[in-house]
Amino acid sequence: MSKILVTGGCGYIGSHTIVDLLENGFSVISIDDNSRSTAYAITGIEKITGKKVKNYKVDLKNFDETRAVFQENPDIEGVIHFAAYKAVGESVEEPLLYYENNIFGLVNLMKCVQEFEVPYFVFSSSCTVYGNPDNIPVTENSPTKRAESPYGATKQMGEEILQNFSKANPATSIVLLRYFNPVGAHPSTLIGELPVGRPQNLVPAITQTAIGKLPKMMVYGNDYPTRDGSCVRDYVHVCDIANAHTLAIQYLSAKKNTSACDIFNLGTGNGVTVLEAIKTFEEISGVKLNYEIGPRREGDVVAIYANNDLATTQLGWHIKYGLKEMMETAWTWERRIKEAEEKVKSN
Ligand code: WQD
Fold it and tell me: Per CATH, is 3-186+235-266 categorized as 3.40.50.720?
C-alpha cells in the first residue's frame, strides 16, 4: 500500500484529502505544526474512515525535525504539500511571516524530497497566480500576473521553485494544482473549515453571520462590471478538490505526466457572483442573511473562473458537488460547530 505524506494534514483541504486518499487505498501520515489547526481534524478523519493517521507535530521551518519524519518513513512514495499560511489580508500586513513560513518551509521539505528521492510531489497552488485575468475562463496557459498580495507571491514563487527543482531532480515528478475557491465541508460534517479569527473568505463569513456569530456581513462592492455588480468566482467543493489530489498521485504513479511538472486548474468552470452565492445560501438554509453593500476590498479580482478541461481529461477528475451542496454542507458544518461549542459551555 503506497504511503503518502500530507503536510498540513490537520487543515481544511489537507484533512479532506487524507479522507479521500484513505478511501482510495493509500496509507497516510501527516506533518502539521497545529499553529493554525487542531488535532481534532485527525479524530474526524479516523471517525469517517475507521483508519488511523499519525500526525507529526512538526514545523517545516525546523529542517532536522522534518528530515526525521522522512528518516522514520523511508517508504514515503508521495508528498502532498498544503502546509502554508493563506490569509490574503494578513500577508499584506506581515509579508516576512509569509515568506519565511511558506517559502522556507517549502525549501526544507524539498531538501528532504531530494535526499530521500520521493518519486511523486503534489503542490497546493491557487488561481491567485493569474491575478486579474484579461480573458475568462482561464486555462493553465493563461498568463500569470504579478501577485496582488504576498500570499499570492508565495504561491507563484512556490511554483517557480518546483519547476526548477523538477528539472534538476528527475527522480521526482511534480503536479501543481491551482485551486479556485474551495468551499463546503465533508457530508459527514465531521471535518470542515475552521477559520482562525474573523473569517476572511466569503462562505464562512456567510455561515457565521447566518448562525449569529457575526452580527452582519459586508458585500465588498456591487459596482463591478459584472452581471449584478458583485465579483465573480469559481466555487468548488472541498471534497472535489480533495479527490483531485488522489487522482494527481495516481496520474504520476501511472507515469501519465507529460512533463516533469504538470499544471492543472481545479475549478468547476462556473462563475458565480457574490450576490448569487448569498441567494443560493438563503434558498437552501431558509435564513435571510443580514448583509449590506460596502466598499470594494483592496486586491480583489473582478471576475475569474476556470477552464478545467485538462483536469477532467488528463486526471479523470469529475465534479460531484454543485453550489447547493457546497452551501448545504457549509451550513450543516457551521451548525455542528455551534452544537459542539454549546456542549463545551454546558459541561
Ligand atoms: C470571494 C469574494 C470578496 C468575504 C482568496 C485567495 C485564494 C484562496 C481563497 C486560500 C470576493 C467577497 C468575501 C466577505 C465579501 N485562498 N467577500 N464579503 O479572495 O476570491 O480568494 O481566498 O485558499 O487564493 O485569493 O476568496 O472568499 O475571500 O472572496 O463580499 O465577508 O467574496 O470580495 O469578491 P478570494 P474570498
Answer: yes
